[in-house]
Sequence to fold (374 residues):
Amino acid sequence: MDTRTSIDRFAGAGGATAGLFLAGCDIRLAVERDKDAAATYSANFPGVQLLSEAIETYTPSYILEKAGLQPGSLDILSACPPCQGFSTLGKCDPDDDRNDYVQTVEALVENLRPRALILENVPGLDHDPRSSRLKASLHSIGYGVGSWVLDATEFCVPQRRRRFVLIAVSGLTNDEIADPRSSYRCADWPDHPHTVRDILHALGPPTAGESLHAARNLPPPILRRVRAVPHDGGSRKDLPESLQLECHKRLSQRGAASVYGRMAWDEPAPTITTRCTTPACGRFLHPEQDRPITLREAAAFQTFPPTFCWKGGVMHIARQIGNAVPVRLAHLLTLHTIRLIRLAEGRSVSSQQLGPDPSPPRSPKTATPAIPSV
Ligand SMILES: C[S@@+](CC[C@H](N)C(=O)[O-])C[C@H]1O[C@@H](n2cnc3c(N)ncnc32)[C@H](O)[C@@H]1O
Fold:
């Protein structure tokens, strides 16, 4: 395996780190300031140094020193800055302070000079001037840059999740940064779960005593509404008038259409958000049972292995899960980036040879291969 050094900035619970790890990276350092997310991260990656203050507390030279690296010797910087400011679920506020983290990524690249940067965010970033500035700035310091709005289903993740992905590699031209979708076809991963049915059947029913795989108790008025939602894809739009909420009656048929929605058995899950176990916040009900999905099920749709350890209260864990990069997406983006780095290093023969990975990892239908502690 081609082992590459990496740093995961805005590490969260570790979705991106798990992908880097599965791709064989030597993760030297992670930064995450949220206490619960940091606890989850450390429980699963006890061998990775985690800096748990805000990223702005640390100078680039401190980060390099802690990672045991020299400027220019880091292979991959992974950065998934907070996305609420760009998200359609948030206020899309261009002045949201969190948007400026994109600019701090630029500063870190200038100082650390990694061979490659992988940045993931919500599609809203694609139209923001900060993304054009970031691309221009990376280009001016010698990086080839590619960016796309991708759907996680294109990477065999059993969840519709549109995301902005930027990959920059030092020493390549923009044209040489191949679209990651050119490297992988879901047909190469026939054994992986693709649908709600695959995931729910693999996990089995909620288990008494397993708090992460326990169905949330719903208050009686909500339970009455949930029971009336038709199986396999119904939503609040299908409720009789007597069970509709006043605020929903004021919406058009199209507005908030997925609220109180049931997942559909033979489709991928909808985007798993930070409110992924709350029926009023999206299509998060089981296709047939009168309950929202469990935290374990939500994590499985994000392709975390069932053995992944989660820390914090129920709502905090839902937030960590919804914020994460799906493990499989992170894994495939990292493998693609490593091949681009090899191209830049002159070890690959030509960009045309960036074909399918010769040996896509295989695993049983349960999800991504278990991530051993590093
Ligand atoms: C989109 S989430 C990252 C998800 C993560 N990459 C994963 O795959 O699990 C962004 C994370 O950045 C963290 N964060 C926000 N501002 C930060 C700061 N100033 N310093 C360090 N971490 C920060 C948040 O707590 C959140 O966990």
Q: What stands out?
A: The chain has eleven helices and seven strands. Strands lie at 5-9, 26-31, 50-51, 76-79, 116-121, 143-151, 162-170. The CA atoms of residues 63 and 69 lie 9 Å apart. The first strand starts at residue 5 and ends at 9.
